[in-house]
């Protein structure tokens, strides 16, 4: 993969700056730093990080930094955006304003990618949507799932195994998430092996599936969890983050460019993993764009 210009918005923590420097050193990105240059240079000096000859845009506020990053991305001057120490809502408001002005369609959604060696799950697990879509309808959940399928296919998982979560495996009208999970699973079957409604234990444990009498290739082997709402997805990921050795990457997808969106408190490894995930997804977007 070639090096691409990336707008890095307010990288004002040592973990974030180390991750950006690591992505630069690996040839993934050419950073375009947007934010408070004085604070950044002080942080770099105190952290022992040598700043290469990067492009800097000195801005006076988080809002101004977010607006500039969104403008550069919309104009094609940068190929992806990396969130630093700025609130998600400030950055995403700027992105959405710029998308509205440009007429760009499609719903954005967020995916977490989780490696949990201490828990013993046998592969990387993807979770959506724990950051953007608060209480999605069935139609929105279908879009969220299809965005995530695009991401997984960009990583070589052509027919991912998807668990659409609820609290149980039976449809219950008193539990709307179970009704919606069944419908979403049915709608995405053409692109994935989908099971829903399904509880978390069955999605991740073949033993739990056996005890409950659930026979599905998804049970105990899910690639992706589609959660009922933002609270359940975010809480699940925050619990995973507390396990030793866990690495979590975060990415906004569904638009014309990826937005690397880790949590501000993420460790350097997780922030670097987010950059790598964003670069891989961008390569897939660019490949498909060339084929059109």
UniProtKB/TrEMBL annotation:
SUPFAM superfamilies: Isocitrate/Isopropylmalate dehydrogenase-like (SSF53659). GO terms for molecular function: acyltransferase activity. Residues 67-269 form the Phosphate acetyl/butaryl transferase domain. Keywords: Acyltransferase, Transferase. Pfam families: PTA_PTB (PF01515). PANTHER family: PHOSPHATE ACETYLTRANSFERASE. Belongs to the phosphate acetyltransferase and butyryltransferase family. This is Phosphate acetyl/butaryl transferase domain-containing protein.
């Amino acid at each position: 993969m070639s090096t691409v210009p990336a707008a890095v918005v307010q990288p004002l923590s040592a973990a974030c700056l180390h991750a950006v420097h690591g992505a630069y050193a690996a040839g993934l990105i050419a950073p375009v730093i947007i934010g408070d240059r004085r604070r950044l240079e002080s942080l770099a000096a105190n952290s022992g990080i040598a700043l290469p000859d990067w492009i800097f845009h000195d801005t006076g506020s988080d809002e101004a930094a977010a607006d500039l990053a969104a403008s550069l991305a919309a104009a094609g001057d940068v190929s992806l955006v990396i969130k630093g120490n700025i609130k998600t809502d400030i950055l995403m408001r700027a992105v959405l304003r710029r998308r509205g002005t440009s007429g760009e369609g499609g719903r954005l959604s967020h995916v977490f990618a989780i490696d949990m060696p201490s828990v013993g799950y046998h592969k990387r697990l993807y979770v959506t949507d724990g950051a953007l879509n608060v209480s999605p309808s069935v139609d929105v959940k279908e879009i969220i799932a299809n965005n995530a399928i695009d991401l997984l296919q960009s990583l070589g998982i052509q027919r991912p195994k998807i668990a659409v979560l609820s609290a149980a495996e039976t449809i219950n009208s008193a539990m709307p998430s179970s009704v919606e999970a069944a419908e979403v699973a049915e709608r995405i079957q053409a692109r994935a092996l989908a099971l829903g409604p399904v509880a978390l234990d069955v999605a991740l444990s073949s033993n739990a599936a056996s005890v409950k009498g659930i026979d599905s290739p998804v049970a105990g082997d899910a690639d992706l969890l589609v959660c009922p709402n933002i609270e359940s997805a975010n809480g699940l990921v925050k619990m995973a983050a507390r396990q030793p050795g866990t690495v979590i990457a975060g990415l906004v997808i569904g638009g014309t460019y990826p937005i690397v969106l880790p949590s501000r408190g993420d460790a350097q490894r997780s922030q670097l993993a987010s950059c790598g995930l964003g670069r891989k997804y961008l390569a897939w977007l660019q490949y498909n764009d060339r084929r059109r």
